[in-house]
Specification:
Structural class: alpha/beta
Shape: globular
Largest sheet: 5 strands, mixed
Number of strands: 5
Strand order of the largest sheet: 1-2-5-3-4
Order of helices and strands: HEHHEHEHEE
Radius of gyration: 14 Å
Length: 158
């Protein structure tokens, strides 16, 4: 029962947040709000490789404020995904980087835990040491031999 209520809280917070897709290189595509919310919630499911605890996700969303920068990068080449993440994170102003939620998803040869580790490392280097960071990895059979990274980066309001 508590888990269901918390999932509803997460949905409510994500639905109320204005997710602004960040301009990405041509090799990347931006996902819509529903896809980003689905990626975040998939990371809280029991089948996730690196599962996000719902309470941690709620805390991270609160730290991201009411309008975090968000982007989703999907490609069959993990190196291109990594480069697009570096590019997007470099464009975000430093004062908007106090919290991050990062979900790596994929399936097949272009998706491995070492790829996720590289993405998480790129995000960690782009953030301040004191930043609140939550990472997850999810198998998604819909992404055949592809990798997708959904990232929310923000700062508390005020």
């Amino acid at each position: 029962m508590k888990r269901t209520l918390m999932r509803r809280q997460v949905l409510k917070i994500v639905a109320s947040v204005t997710l602004s897709p960040w301009p990405l290189p041509a090799a990347s595509t931006s996902a819509n709000r529903v896809q980003q919310a689905a990626a975040l919630l998939a990371a809280t499911a029991e089948g996730a490789i690196l599962q996000i605890d719902l309470e941690d996700l709620l805390d991270a969303l609160k730290f991201c404020g009411s309008s975090p920068v968000s982007f989703t990068v999907t490609n069959h080449d993990a190196c291109k995904v990594l480069d697009a993440c570096r590019d997007a994170l470099a464009r975000i102003p430093t004062h908007n980087k106090t919290a991050a939620v990062v979900v790596c998803s994929g399936y097949g040869e272009s998706f491995g835990l070492h790829h996720c580790t590289e993405v998480f490392s790129v995000v960690q280097h782009a953030m301040d040491e004191s930043a609140y960071q939550v990472f997850a990895a999810v198998f998604d059979p819909a992404l055949v031999d592809a990798m997708s990274v959904t990232c929310l980066v923000g700062a508390p309001d005020g």
